[in-house]
From TrEMBL:
This is superoxide dismutase. Residues 2-47 form the LysM domain. GO terms for molecular function: metal ion binding; superoxide dismutase activity. Keywords: Metal-binding, Oxidoreductase. The lineage of its organism: Bacteria, Bacillati, Bacillota, Clostridia, Eubacteriales. It is an enzyme of class 1 (oxidoreductase).
C-alpha cells in the first residue's frame, strides 16, 4: 500500500486531492492516526489502492553479474533462461491489464475469460517468483551450507549428508521445481518437489530453489539432469540462502 509522510502544510484535504483518494476508505486504512484532521509532520498516511483494478506495473529484476561467469553454465544458457523469465513478467502485466478491463464480468468456474486470466495470472506469478529465487540463489561458490543454515538443516534432517541426499532425490523426482523451504506452521525445513499441476505448499518460505525444467539446462547438458544438478551445487550462493533464513520473522 502506498504511503505518504506528512510534511508541513499537508492536510487531509490536500492528500485526498493529491491521490484522488476516498475519504472514508482513507480513515479505515489509517486507524493508527488519532485524528486525520490534525496531522503532524512525520505522520505516515497509508493511501488505499484504487478500487478499479489498477495494478502496480511489475518490472523484471536484473541478473547478478556472477551468473555470467559460473563454471558449468554457458552465458547463452543463462541468457536464454533469463529471456524466459522476462516473458513471465511481461505476461503478468498483460494479464492484469486485461483483468482490469474485464471488470469481473461473467466469472464462472467451468469456463470464463475471467477464470482463464486468473488461472494464467497465478501460473505466471508463481513462475516469475520462483525464477527470481532461483537466479538469486546461484552465482555463489557452492560447497556446503554453513552457520545458522547448516545448524537448522542438521536440526531438521539429522545430518547435512541426509538433507543433501534427500534434496537431490527431490530434484530428480520433481518435474519443475525443487524447494528447500521453511514452514511457518510447524517451524521446520522441508524439501518439496513442485509440478505445475500439484501446486505450491502454503506458508512455505523458499530458501533454496532449483529450476528442473529442461530449458534450465538443455543447452549445456541436453537431457542430463544429473550433470546439471552437479553444476548447480557448485554454484549455490549460500550467503543468499542464509540471508533468506535470517530474515524470516519466526
Ligand atoms: Fe526456468
Amino acid at each position: 500500500m502506498p504511503r505518504h509522510v506528512i510534511r508541513p502544510g499537508d492536510t487531509i484535504k490536500t492528500i485526498v486531492k493529491k491521490y484522488n483518494a476516498n475519504t472514508n476508505n482513507l480513515a479505515i486504512a489509517n486507524t493508527h492516526l488519532e485524528n486525520l484532521e490534525n496531522l503532524n509532520p512525520g505522520d505516515v498516511v497509508y493511501i488505499p489502492a484504487a478500487s478499479d483494478g489498477t495494478y502496480n506495473f511489475l518490472e523484471t529484476k536484473n541478473l547478478k553479474s556472477s551468473l555470467r561467469t559460473m563454471m558449468g553454465f554457458s552465458v547463452r544458457q543463462i541468457q536464454e533462461h533469463y529471456k524466459l523469465y522476462q516473458d513471465y513478467v511481461i505476461k503478468i502485466n498483460e494479464i492484469r491489464a486485461k483483468l482490469q478491463a474485464l471488470k469481473q464480468k461473467e466469472a464462472d468456474s467451468i469456463y470464463s475469460e475471467y477464470r482463464a486470466l486468473k488461472t494464467a495470472e497465478l501460473y505466471a506469478v508463481n513462475n516469475c517468483k520462483l525464477h527470481e529465487y532461483y537466479f538469486e540463489n546461484m552465482g555463489g561458490r557452492g560447497g556446503n551450507a554453513t552457520g545458522n543454515v547448516l545448524e537448522v538443516i542438521v536440526r531438521d534432517f539429522g545430518s547435512y549428508e541426509y538433507w543433501e541426499k534427500d534434496f537431490r532425490a527431490t530434484c530428480l523426482m520433481a518435474r519443475n521445481w525443487a524447494i528447500l523451504g521453511y514452514d511457518f506452521d510447524d517451524g521446520h525445513l522441508h524439501n518439496y518437489g513442485y509440478d505445475e499441476d500439484a501446486g505450491l505448499a502454503v506458508r512455505i518460505e523458499p530458501l533454496l530453489v532449483v529450476d528442473l525444467a529442461e530449458h534450465a539446462y538443455f543447452l549445456d547438458y541436453g537431457t542430463n539432469r544429473t550433470s546439471y544438478l552437479d553444476a548447480f551445487a557448485k554454484n549455490i550462493d549460500w550467503a543468499v540462502v542464509k540471508s533468506r533464513f535470517t530474515n524470516i520473522k519466526i
